[in-house]
Design goal:
By secondary structure, this protein is an alpha+beta fold. It has a single domain (5-135), classed as Nuclear Transport Factor 2, Chain: A. It has four helices and seven strands. The protein has helices at residues 5-27, 30-34, 54-57, 60-67, and strands at residues 37-44, 52-53, 70-77, 81-85, 91-104, 108-123, 126-135. Strands 1, 2, 3, 4, 5, 6 and 7 form a seven-stranded mixed beta sheet that branches. It is globular. It starts with a helix and ends in a 17-residue tail after the last strand. The relative contact order is 0.18.
């Protein structure tokens, strides 16, 4: 796809959305964190259940409860991800590897690499996350154990 000035502007805006989401995660600010999700968002996350829908994803109480299990900031490194904007300039996707780091209460320092894909749509002129998929591979040796020890 040929890069246009408009799609370059959209790519910068999308990167800004994802970076603002990460900043809200780091600050453990649930309200700012969920503000980047569309009301009809669908997510497939690392933790159960298999699927989360808009109201559950945007529930700040759930995020605040999870944030409370961390001591200090939760850092999400999004340095190696790509953004592709559709020619219509109203739909885009981003994907890459994410490193989540922080100190989990009672467990100590954590560092987890996983795969993320975000789909975004312009809604009333604002890029919103409409789909998010996070995953880790699993060992296919019969153990079905998540391969959380992998690093790029």
């Amino acid at each position: 796809m040929q890069q246009t000035a408009h799609s370059s502007t959209s790519e910068l805006a999308i990167r800004g959305v994802l970076e603002a989401r990460s900043a809200a995660l780091k600050a453990k600010n649930a309200e700012d964190f969920v503000a980047h999700y569309a009301t009809d968002v669908v997510t497939y996350d690392l933790a159960p259940p298999l699927q989360n829908l808009g109201p559950d994803v945007r529930d700040t109480a759930g995020w605040e409860a999870w944030f409370a299990t961390w001591d200090g900031p939760i850092v999400e490194d999004l340095s190696a991800f790509s953004v592709t904007v559709a020619e219509s300039d109203d739909i885009a996707f981003s994907h890459g590897l994410v490193n989540l780091q922080g100190d989990k209460i009672g467990e100590g320092p954590q560092s987890l690499w996983f795969r993320s894909t975000w789909c975004l749509r312009q809604i009333d002129g604002t890029w919103m996350i409409t789909h998010e998929h996070n995953s880790t591979p699993f060992y296919m040796d019969g153990s079905h154990r998540a391969a959380t020890d992998l690093v790029p």
